[in-house]
Design goal:
heterodimer; A: about 100 residues; mainly alpha; 3 helices; about 0% strand; B: Four Helix Bundle (Hemerythrin (Met), subunit A)
């Protein structure tokens, strides 16, 4: 079986990046960025997720089929979040006829 | 101890051991996708109510201890690091390293759960547990405040439950690793167990900023 064995150095670098990003997200949260506090927090979390998925979960070296399944999962998650929130956010934009 | 290094029996529906392993990995990923949707619903509920009751959610969120949350995040990231090194040890056939890294992963997971238990206990003492004795200082909106803590307990509770299941999986892997069951040509359970462990880590990577950090600038 041909398996890719990543070096300890690679894993250590990814691990240190994850710790640095945790520190960064904690520190940046104390600064008032207005609406961008949420954006920043989610952006850093997404970067950390990508690091864990690509390196620790070996998604980099996974088969196309696995990548498609994971991508499909994220797509359904996006449908759940985006469509539901677009409903809640836009309620009240237009009056309901007869009310 | 005799090490009866058995290779995975090739089941008849598969052409090669590589294909068999690929399918196991894919199966775990499909399970994880269902878990994404499961936690996704909770994240959606959180987003909707946080939008609705922004100021109360900010107040409630700021009662959580950021330092404890950040340290616990680091502990969990350390456990993911030891987990990936355990998988690597299995890949290169180092039974001793595999056992050491699995034990470290179990210990770090235990530390995380211990800290979580300490935090929950604090919530009980501060009357921040939804129910008849609930009270959050500084707001008249006790209902939405309870909503925040309901989501807090549901999300961190289900995450902790996944951690407990993960600890069980790690003990299972440790037992089989001790018996020398895993070799470079067969270590699929270690690999698949690792995927689960890292997924649980990712859930926490999102829970930490959303629950602890998002209103910190208004503190």
């Amino acid at each position: 079986m041909q398996e890719h064995v990543a070096s300890i150095k690679t894993y250590t670098l990814v691990f240190l990046s994850l710790l640095a990003l945790t520190l960064a997200t904690t520190l940046v949260a104390a600064i008032d960025l207005g609406a961008f506090n949420v954006v920043m927090a989610l952006f850093i979390a997404a970067v950390k997720m990508m690091l864990v998925a690509l390196f620790f979960m070996h998604l980099r070296h996974s088969t196309i089929l696995t990548k498609v399944v994971v991508g499909g999962g994220m797509l359904w998650l996006a449908i759940l979040l985006v469509l539901s929130l677009s409903d809640f956010v836009t309620r009240g934009w237009l009056p309901v006829p007869g009310k | 101890m005799d090490s009866h290094a058995e290779t995975a029996e090739l089941r008849e529906q598969f052409e090669t051991p590589a294909q068999q392993k690929e399918i196991s990995t894919l199966g775990m990923w499909i399970f994880l996708v269902t878990e994404i949707m499961f936690f996704g619903g909770l994240f959606l509920a959180y987003a909707i109510y946080r939008r609705e009751f922004a100021s109360v959610f900010a107040l409630a969120s700021n009662t959580l201890d950021v330092v404890i949350g950040a340290v616990n995040t680091a502990v969990l990231l350390c456990s993911s690091f030891t987990m990936v090194l355990a998988v690597r040890a299995a890949q290169i056939g180092s039974r001793k390293a595999l056992i050491v890294f699995l034990i470290l992963t179990i210990l770090l997971g235990g530390v995380f759960l211990g800290v979580k238990a300490y935090e929950w206990n604090q919530k009980f003492e501060e009357h921040h547990v939804p129910g008849p004795t609930f009270h959050l200082e500084g707001t008249t909106q006790q209902g939405p405040a309870q909503l925040f803590f309901s989501l807090y307990f549901t999300m961190t509770g289900l995450h902790a439950l996944h951690m407990v299941v993960g600890e069980g999986l790690m003990l299972f892997l440790l037992w089989h690793a001790y018996r020398g069951k895993y070799t470079p040509s067969y270590y699929t359970p270690v690999d698949v167990g690792g995927l689960y462990w890292h997924f649980v880590d990712i859930v926490w990577i999102f829970l930490f900023p959303l629950l602890y950090l998002i209103a910190r600038h208004q503190h």
